[in-house]
Amino acid sequence: MLEFLSEKLRVKPPKEELDRIFEHLRKIYPEGEDPWGLSLRKARKNMEMIWPFYKNYFKVRVFGKENVQDEPYLVVSNHSGQIAIDGMLICIAFCMEMESPRVLRPMVERFVTSLPFFGTWAAEGGAVLGDRQNCINLLEAKQSVLVFPEGVRGVAKNTADFYKLQKFTRGFFRMALQTGTKMLPIAVVGAEEFYPFVYHPRKLAKFLGLPALPLTPSLIPMPSPVDIYIGKPYDVPEGLTPESSDSEIDIHIKALESEVRRLTEEGLKKRRSFWANVNEEESE
Amino acid sequence: MTLEMKDISSVLIIGIAGGLAKITAGLLAKKYPHIKVTGVDSRPIKLEVQTENIRTVQMKYTRGNFERIFREKKFDAVLHLGRMSHADANPMGNLEKRLDLNVMGTKRIMDLALRFGVKKNIIMSTYHVYGALSDNPVFINEEAPLRASIKYPELRDVVEMDLFATNWMWKNQSDIETVVLRPCSIIGPNIRNSMCLYLISPYTPIGADFNPMFQFIHEYDMANIIIRSLEAVPTGIYNVAPNEVISIKEAKKVIGLPTIPVPLIFLEQTVKMLNFPFWKFPRYLLDYIKFACIIDSKSIQEYLGDDFFRFSTREALELLKLE
Known about the structure:
Shape of chain B: globular
Number of domains of chain A: 1
Strand order of the largest sheet of chain B: 3-2-1-4-5-6-11
Largest sheet of chain B: 7 strands, parallel
CATH topology of chain B: Rossmann fold
Strand order of the largest sheet of chain A: 1-7-6-2-5-3-4
Number of domains of chain B: 1
Distance between the termini of chain B: 42 Å
Oligomer: heterodimer
Structural class of chain B: alpha/beta
Radius of gyration of chain A: 18 Å
Radius of gyration of chain B: 19 Å
CATH superfamily of chain B: NAD(P)-binding Rossmann-like Domain
Largest sheet of chain A: 7 strands, mixed
Helix content of chain A: 40-55%
């Protein structure tokens, strides 16, 4: 189905570019697989399939690419759009649009890894279980990891709460402290409108044991143009340890929250009309 | 402080009828000709290579004469490689026997070792104790909880034996050195564990919906690690695995036997409903080909040094083809 739609969008990723990127990645993953379930062969296939959606359906633009150097990051992003399409788009941007391409490892909800077909598809593309030890092991292996510190509260918002950044949890910051990894604030603008009208029956979701239950008239995400804003890396503060008190850590978490909020607001001011075309406005 | 090999003159290997134990005995006897190796098993024993310093005895560990060989041979070290396998298609069927042999048998062996002045014990457990669960982190270290029997009670003996051995180890650490090894899937022409049988059988089901990563260690490398544990590894629990990983589909591809891709979610339900062993395939193993159980072997690798593994994962799998 995805393949069929992808054909219809008639945009193929540039072959030479893909060859260059995956040759580079092959040096990082010489076996073509890694312990977390990544498969370079499948990741490339996924990339070829999703690229037309990335380029022509969601018309993604990336700003602040110069902030990404050839080093591992804990990428900290706002979360929106009811389902994790925003995560997928960020991962494609980090693989296809950066000078130093990488497989960004998004941390996914625990239930995802138990899903047949989808769980494996996600893992082969780079997704990893959202577990603290797992994340630390990845960062120690010099991998870049994508986290959404807002959690489900961020992604599952009612229409009235769109673009209201939820409070960040602290776990990601302690992991960065433990591994000495720089954090990279990111804001995704445009993903909230994938499902413009949403209602969350929270009590029903709790009764059914689901993390969220978005009710929306459209099942297919709308072609809302997406802008990804990458902020400056946030260095691991000196003098703090993973065991530092919440109050010591909260100052830095607030600073990161503010940066993501600032990037979001900036992006909202510059956002394109719903039917924008990337050819008219090239990414910076 | 670990034992000097020159202080070891007599070694007992439990489970000598097994493929890994035979290789270990052979390597140990060759490397240290001054060591007298005694192999014991309740199963018939057939050694392919006869060496002067290896003697074998067929007996049950629960019999009185088992105690006698401890008294007479004055063992310096015991390698307990005789865990009764849970590889049967219906492991629930012999759970009672396995609990008796693996838990009570291990207790008896270790108590005798303590009583008769054995200086070092090496006990083989398995990575199966951690369980194959969807929320396993990648790189499970030795401190992780043993969750195998949460979903599969038929793995109770595997977990209980490990827990018993590790408790005993800490309790008696001032009197006897004990090393508990939790290796990943051991493969090789002489090994007949559940994963090896799965790999070398044609037309086995393979998940169309799951493709977990695996760690495989060649039997020869594993035997060398057992010997190294005797030589240099201090008391403790150690995961054993090489640094390489491979997905189960890729592993099957390397071996090159035909497989039947099926959605494991349906296969699992069918097996449950029909309640019969499938393809000589224990039910719990379905989870091991669904969810990864990747272990962290940093602790033991400190004692192995660089380039310890002689066979890469692909080579070990290729060698299975030669059977």
